[in-house]
């Protein structure tokens, strides 16, 4: 399977590293053909782990018709991932670190990335193009929309719902059954004890909304 990485920043480095580890430990035949980034300059050589940047993101239009080509949007910004996935309806693949743990009856949407030591427990549904970051835990029967980012060391308890494009900050905790709306930002280290509406920036222990976004 051929894979093209969309994005050439820090998040892309981690995604590439996951693919390389899957090849090393699971013997998967994934061939990273190149990186696509809008800062591409044909006069400047840029590589990540010896993988070259081969063109701007719009170059996917020339690559998408090859049945062996798959893509992953390796960009941390939720809104940019959302915009690109809508603009370019491609064959997206999920990238799962070999140390991730996925329970029974879990659904993982196309384009989602699960990083080292992340956990998604039984009965949960993870949408498209999500990031379940390093050592993040999503417990049983949760529902995450599309383009969500669960940051490192976050703990999402059972039965939680998180809306599209929301960002759960590093080390936050969410108690069982809580709902977090769309386009909401939960600050680092926050403890979420009650529902948080859409388009809200909230933080603290207990977590409280501070402004609309």
TrEMBL record:
Signal peptide: none
UniProt keyword annotations, A-Z: Transferase
A molecular function (GO) term: transferase activity
Gene3D superfamilies referenced in this protein's UniProt entry, alphabetically: 3.40.50.20, Hexapeptide repeat proteins
Keyword Transferase (UniProt): yes
Pfam families per record: Hexapep, PglD_N
This protein's record includes keyword Transferase: yes
Residue intervals of the PglD N-terminal domain: 2-87
InterPro entries to which the protein is assigned, alphabetical: AcTrfase_PglD-like (IPR020019), Hexapep (IPR001451), PglD_N (IPR041561), Trans_hexapeptide_repeat (IPR050179), Trimer_LpxA-like_sf (IPR011004)
Record-linked NCBIfam families: NeuD_NnaD
Name of the featured protein: Putative transferase
Organism expressing this protein natively: Methanococcus maripaludis KA1
Lineage: Archaea, Methanobacteriati, Methanobacteriota, Methanomada group, Methanococci
């Amino acid at each position: 399977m051929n894979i093209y990485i969309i994005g050439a920043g820090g998040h892309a480095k981690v995604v590439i590293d996951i693919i390389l580890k899957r090849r090393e430990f699971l013997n998967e035949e994934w061939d990273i053909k190149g990186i696509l980034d809008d800062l591409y300059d044909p006069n400047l050589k840029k590589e990540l782990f010896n993988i070259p940047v081969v063109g701007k993101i719009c170059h996917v239009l020339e690559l998408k018709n090859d049945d062996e080509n798959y893509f992953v949007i390796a960009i941390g910004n939720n809104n940019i991932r959302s915009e690109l996935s809508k603009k370019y309806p491609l064959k997206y693949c999920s990238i799962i670190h070999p140390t991730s743990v996925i329970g029974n009856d879990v659904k993982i949407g196309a384009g989602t990335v699960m990083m080292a030591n992340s956990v998604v427990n039984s009965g949960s549904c993870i949408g498209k193009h999500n990031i379940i970051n390093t050592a993040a835990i999503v417990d049983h029967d949760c529902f995450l929309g599309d383009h969500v980012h669960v940051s490192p060391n976050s703990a999402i308890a059972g039965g939680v719902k998180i809306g599209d494009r929301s960002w759960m900050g590093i080390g936050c905790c969410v108690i069982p059954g809580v709902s977090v709306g769309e386009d909401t930002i939960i600050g680092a280290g926050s403890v979420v004890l009650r529902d948080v509406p859409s388009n809200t920036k909230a933080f603290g222990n207990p977590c409280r909304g501070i402004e609309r976004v």
